[in-house]
Structure formats: structure tokens, C-alpha cells
Amino acid sequence: MTIPLYWEKPYKKQFTGKIIAIKKGAIILDKTLFYATAGNQIHDTGTLTINGKYHKVINVEKENEEILHFIHPPPSNNCIGQKVKANLDWERRYAIMKAHTSQHIFSAVMLQQHNVTTNHANIKPDEVTIEFEPFTQQQLESVVKEINILYTSQNRKIISHTLDYNTAQQRYANKIRGKVPKMESIRILEVEGVDYNTCGGTHVRTTTEIGPIIIIKINRNCEVTYFCGKKAIEHVSLINFGAITVSQKLACSMDDFEQIFTNKFEKFIISAKNETKLGYRVMELLPFSPGIDIEGIIYRYLEDPINKKAIMNGFELLGQNAILIAKLEDNLYLILSSSTRVPSNEFVNHLCGKFGGKGGGNSHNAQGKLETEPHDFRNEIVDFIKNKTNHG
Fold first, then answer.
1. Tens of pLDDT along 170-214?
2. pTM of the model
3. Residues sharing a CB contact under 8 Å with residue 210, sequence separation 6 or more, in sequence order
């Protein structure tokens, strides 16, 4: 049996223990500060010093009352009974504590404000994903605003209570989110004035230790991923200066940024659709333009084509024994061929070998980025056919 120290001393960073067993290649200690992956929370990492040698703790798992510490390098079989000095990766642990506590409060406020329940959560260092029942954006915005105030300026205490089932049932049955589980020993986490919930994870002492959160992803109006702590601060700084740079290019203030950017983006979408339509029209008309006959193969060239997708979809209109070379951007070329004598991928390899660069594709569709621009593709097609004939 391993005695867990992390509930009573979650802020302790070091401890000394004794190896009592080796199981599945992992060390079992008589006591530990290392939290094993359980529920929604990921495991701790750190180091163990055994007989003067450092070992990294790379994974921690729990089996019944035993906590397994997977280390690198692996332990020797003769280390049972030896004392170890252990050090937590405190930055990681503290980031997990902040993330886990933030998730409790987020879930509690979503339930209190909008009766939206939590189905699942995934806790990582400074990062949380919560799967809720479906919610609206307005509901999410109101909750994020309220909890960010709790995380930054309302210093609420966070206290854990370890009780037997009957006592927990009497005191907290009407307060707790969910039900009091029928267990011999129950750990209840109380966030002052906000939440009561059962939890065996590690948490901070006060809400302001969490710091601000920033939402980074919303899926299907039911799953939210966010950063907290150091990650949130770094991400906010990045987005803030990025938004300022874009707003300056748009010649608008930060207050008007969202509306101006939305208007510009909508115009871009309309323009892109019109460009796609124009591209298809160009491909419809291209068969009527005179191509260059190279030994029975009809060659055409497009400079700065309007739409790559339209070119690829419309190429079949050019018929058999056709080659179309489209310059997409500086020295980047799209090669389409319906001729068995000039496969696209082989021709791209020919060009890359002669002019430098790299590319790839298949016999009908290939693309190449050349270091030097060919003077005349007609001559290159002629040379390719000649070389292929000579080596055929």
C-alpha cells in the first residue's frame, strides 16, 4: 500500500520514501507526492534519486492501493528496500492544480447560471477541455466573464474535507453537485460560496491563484478548450499584439476591429466565390484558344491562373494528348497532362533535375517549385520527349 501525500500536502515539492516493491517494471513506494492519472487529471512527473542515480518519473498509475512510478532508466531488481529522494516537477504540478480547480468552478457556474451540466473533462497543465450539454454562445460568454472575475479578483478559499459516507451525506447531500458516492472515505472539495463536489485530485488554495483563462476552441456548442495560468497569459499577449498589428493594417481601432474584420472577411468570401466562377469560365473557353502542337501533343500555358481548383476540375475539357502548365506563384508550377508520352510527375522530375527544386505528383497531376524559371516550356517538352524516346 502507498500512502498518498498529495491530499494533505499538495504544495510540498520534495519527499523521501522507501521502495517496497517493483511491479510491471515500475517502482512502488511506501508513500508518495506523485499523483497518478485518475478521473480527469493527468499524472505528475519529476525525478527519483536511487543510490545516488537520477531517474525521471515519466508516468504514474494506480492499481488498487498501490501507486506505480514508471521511471527512466528502469529500476534494478535489487533496489527494493532502498530509500529514494523524490522531486516533483513543480511547475507542471502547479499548472495542473490551477487547471483542475478552474474546471470545478467553470462547471459549477455553468450549472448554476444556465442549468448546463458537465459530461466529461480532461485536465492537463494549464489546459482544460470540458464537454458540456449543449449551450449557446451567449451563455458561454456570460459564464467566462463571471469566472474570470473569480479567478483574478475575488479571492475565494478552496478547502477539502475528508469524511465518512454518513457524515458526508448528512452535511453535503443537498449542497453537492451530483450525489455523494457510497464509499468508506469521501473527499469533498469546497470552493467558498461557489461549489461543493467530490474529487480526489490536486487543487490550489485560493481562486486568484488560477489567473485568467482564455477560450481557444469551441466544438459543436458543447465542448470548450481553454488555457489558464502561464499558457493563458502567453496566449493573450500573442493574440493582443497580433490583433493590434492587423487592426493597424485595417486602419481601425481595437474597438471596431471585430466588425471591420468581419466585413472584410465577408467581402473576401464573395470575391473568392466570384474568382472561382471566373476560373471555371476560363477553363470552359480555353479549349477554343489555339494551343501549340508539339509532336501531336497540344500544349497550353496559363500565367497567374485565377483558381487552381477550377483548372484541375476543368482540365478534362482539353481532351486527350493535352498538356497544361499553370504558374501558380513565383517558380511554382502546376503540370496537368493527359498524354502518356509526357506524364506529369516525370516531367516535373525532369524540370527539377535541370533547374533545381523539388516536386511530386502522379502521371496526370503534379506540382513543382523550381529554383530557376525555365525560358521556354515548349523546348523542355521537346527535350523530355526526345530523352524519353532515346532511353525507351
1. 888 888 888 888 888 899 999 999 999 999 999 999 999 999 999
2. 0.71
3. 98, 101, 102, 105, 151, 204, 228, 229
Cell output for 276: 472561382
Amino acid present at 276: T
pLDDT tens readout for residues 21-77: 999 999 999 999 999 998 889 999 999 999 999 999 999 999 988 999 999 999 988
The Cα angle at residue 77 between residues 71 and 83, in degrees rounded to 5: 65
Helix, strand or coil, per DSSP, at residue 329: strand
Radius of gyration of the chain (CA): 32
Strand, coil or helix: what is 53?
A: strand
Q: What strands lie across the sheet with 127-132, from one edge to the other? A: 118-124, 127-132, 223-227, 214-219
Taken in order of first residue, the domains within the chain and their CATH numbers are 3-88 (2.40.30.130), 94-241 (3.30.980.10), 282-391 (3.10.310.40)
Identify the sign of the CA torsion 277, 278, 282, 285: positive
Judge whether 40 and 118 are in contact, CB under 8 Å. no
Q: What are phi and psi of 313, to 5 degrees?
A: -75, -30
And the C-alpha cell for 342?
509526357
Distance CA 59, CA 99 (A): 19
**3 state DSSP class of 97:** helix
Q: Identify the residue whose cell numbers are 511530386.
A: 360
Contact indicator for 187, 161 with CB cutoff of 8 Å: yes
